């Protein structure tokens, strides 16, 4: 197996995941019933953080104290027919956690030092949506 | 500015890249004065961790001078001489609160990749692929350091650049292995690998009061360094039966704590090396866990095994039976540098921890590709190649 093929074997499932997210976003079909997305932020919260206010118009958000002094569990459920995607919710929750805990959201290094090549295309696609994918 | 860039599997070159800029208010820019090769880089260079893009700047163990400071930075000023933890941590999330800094929730801008691979995402690291945040590395004239109040530490005047450099990664990693591996006075500790990480783990075990510390490798010069600079015993795995030797040297009990500092490209004189290498090359397993297997087998009943070596994915023939039936504790981690660096700098100032001998090769950044070649081949008794940009 060549180096390219080897690298792709591992990167491919991740790139495929990203492609699925992108395709879902494009297709106008009504989405299948979706999971609830939950994160714990390491702070007590009594109201929905400002960074989720816009999203709150189209999704159901609930707060609950996390056990063991771990802060607050923020749950987001995307109702049937909502225009909001799972990817948008993941990004918003990750950014909100960082805003609440740190007051800021880490940006990648810059300016970039890399070159676009056909080999790194799947990886670039995955990292352009770095906070939108994953399991959250 | 000049920087060492990854150009493809086993291809490195020094090129010109844009100077880094402040991106978040908690950032500083550091003018790198010393930056060094790490065994972890070999896994990236060889393509075993396939999340590199052409042009990525390598390097995560470094020291330098602060030249620019973001508006939210409180602990640093222009002119500070700092050593920086290789992992990037916010200092404010639950994991940072527990001092599990490399598990920081807010330090990786690409959490999706590792969350998909491993279930949850650890934090970010300098120069360590896009899976760890794609942060530009330290083999360059300048580097941006995010969360500088948390991850950059002013070096006391008494500690030289040459010594402080290794607090950045290898000494904190080694210390973590001994500390979280639970080394106590009276313990027998075995360490696999006499690279900088294994040597620093052994020195930590000595300083934490272990009765006997035994370092295993096959490279004579590294084992000589262990005897001379670390104050530990040595064991050459090509000349001795490791399991039998460890049994004898621990009164038949087996080592209390086993620290693995070898990683996914482990070597072995035995038949399983060929087996593991072929499976790894065919991608039927991503890592070669030879030293981990040996550590689990050699460890005493109820003992502890700490995995410092880097692994990316899946391994074969993992001795789960030994782990379960002997009641072992097996743990691993990327380094929690912020937890240990201040203490390490104090010990360095007192002369308890010396590291200069690790820098067997010092050269200008222009020669970094050659430095990595020598380091990878362990040529000319190389332990670490240090670059001076
Ligand atoms: N956990 C962390 O945060 C962290 C930080 C730094 C490095 N690391 C990892 O630690 C490992 C060691 O790093 P290093 O810089 O010292 O690397 P290195 O390549 O300089 O040293 C590895 C040593 O292991 C020896 N070795 C190979 N096979 C062996 C075997 N079967 N038994 C005993 N020794 C064997 C080699 O001869 C070599 O001396 C690497 O995997 C690196 O990625 C982890
Ligand atoms: Zn390292
Ligand atoms: Zn954190």
UniProtKB/TrEMBL annotation, chain A:
Ranges where the record places region Disordered: 104-136
| Compositional bias annotation for Basic and acidic residues | 126-136
Protein name per its UniProtKB record: Uncharacterized protein
Provide the species name. Paractinoplanes deccanensis
Q: What is the lineage of its organism?
A: Bacteria, Bacillati, Actinomycetota, Actinomycetes, Micromonosporales
Automatic annotation (TrEMBL), chain B:
Q: Which cofactor does it need?
A: Zn(2+)
Q: Which PANTHER family does the annotation name?
A: DEHYDROGENASE, ZINC-CONTAINING, PUTATIVE (AFU_ORTHOLOGUE AFUA_2G02810)-RELATED, ZINC-TYPE ALCOHOL DEHYDROGENASE-LIKE
Is Thylakoid given among the entry's keywords? no
Q: Which residues form the Alcohol dehydrogenase-like N-terminal domain?
A: 25-149
Tell me the domain of life.
Answer: Bacteria
The Alcohol dehydrogenase-like C-terminal domain sits at: 196-265
> What protein name applies here?
Glutathione-dependent formaldehyde dehydrogenase
């Amino acid at each position: 197996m060549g180096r390219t093929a080897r690298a792709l074997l591992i990167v491919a499932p991740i790139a495929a995941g990203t492609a699925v997210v992108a395709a879902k976003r494009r297709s106008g079909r009504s989405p299948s019933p979706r999971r609830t997305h939950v994160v714990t932020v390491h702070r007590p919260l009594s109201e929905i953080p400002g960074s989720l206010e816009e999203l709150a118009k189209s999704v159901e958000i609930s707060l609950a104290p996390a056990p063991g002094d771990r802060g607050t569990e923020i749950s987001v459920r995307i109702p049937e027919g909502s225009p909001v995607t799972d990817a948008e919710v993941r990004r918003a929750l990750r950014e909100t956690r960082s805003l609440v805990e740190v007051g800021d959201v880490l940006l990648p290094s810059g300016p970039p030092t890399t070159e676009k090549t056909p080999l790194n295309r799947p990886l670039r696609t995955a990292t352009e949506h770095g906070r939108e994918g994953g399991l959250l | 500015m000049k920087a060492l860039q990854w150009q493809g599997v086993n291809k490195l070159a020094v090129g010109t890249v844009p100077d880094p800029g402040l991106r978040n208010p908690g950032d500083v820019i550091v003018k790198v004065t010393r930056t060094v090769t790490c065994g972890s880089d070999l896994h990236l260079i060889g393509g075993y961790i396939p999340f590199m893009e052409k042009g990525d700047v390598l390097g995560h163990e470094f020291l330098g001078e602060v030249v620019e400071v973001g508006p939210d930075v409180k602990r640093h000023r222009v002119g500070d001489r700092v050593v920086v933890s290789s992992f990037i941590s916010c200092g404010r999330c639950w994991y940072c609160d527990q001092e599990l800094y490399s598990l920081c929730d807010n330090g990786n801008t690409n959490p999706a990749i590792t969350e998909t691979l491993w279930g949850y995402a650890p934090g970010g690291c300098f120069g360590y692929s896009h899976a760890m945040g794609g942060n530009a590395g330290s083999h360059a004239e300048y580097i941006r350091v995010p969360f500088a109040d948390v991850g950059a530490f002013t070096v006391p005047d008494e500690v030289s650049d040459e010594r402080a450099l290794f607090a950045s990664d290898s000494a904190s990693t080694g210390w973590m292995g001994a500390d979280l591996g639970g080394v106590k006075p009276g313990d027998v500790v075995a360490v696999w690998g006499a690279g900088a990480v294994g040597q620093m783990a052994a020195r930590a075990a000595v300083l934490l009061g272990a009765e006997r510390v035994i370092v295993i490798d096959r490279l004579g010069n590294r084992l000589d360094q262990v005897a001379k600079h670390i104050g530990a015993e040595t064991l050459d795995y090509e000349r001795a039966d490791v399991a039998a030797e460890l049994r004898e040297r621990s009164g038949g009990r087996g080592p209390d704590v086993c620290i693995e500092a070898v990683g996914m490209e482990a070597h072995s004189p035995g038949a399983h090396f060929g087996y593991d290498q072929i499976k790894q090359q065919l991608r039927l397993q991503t890592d070669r866990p030879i030293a981990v297997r040996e550590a689990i087998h050699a460890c005493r009943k109820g003992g502890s095994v700490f995995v410092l070596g880097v692994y990316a994915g899946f391994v074969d023939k993992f001795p789960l039976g030994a782990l379960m039936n002997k009641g072992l504790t097996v743990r691993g981690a990327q380094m929690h540098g912020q937890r240990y660096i201040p203490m390490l700098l104090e010990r360095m100032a007192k002369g308890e921890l010396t590291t200069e001998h690790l820098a067997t090769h010092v050269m200008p950044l222009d020669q970094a590709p050659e430095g990595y070649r020598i380091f990878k081949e362990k040529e000319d008794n190389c332990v670490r190649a240090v670059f001076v940009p």
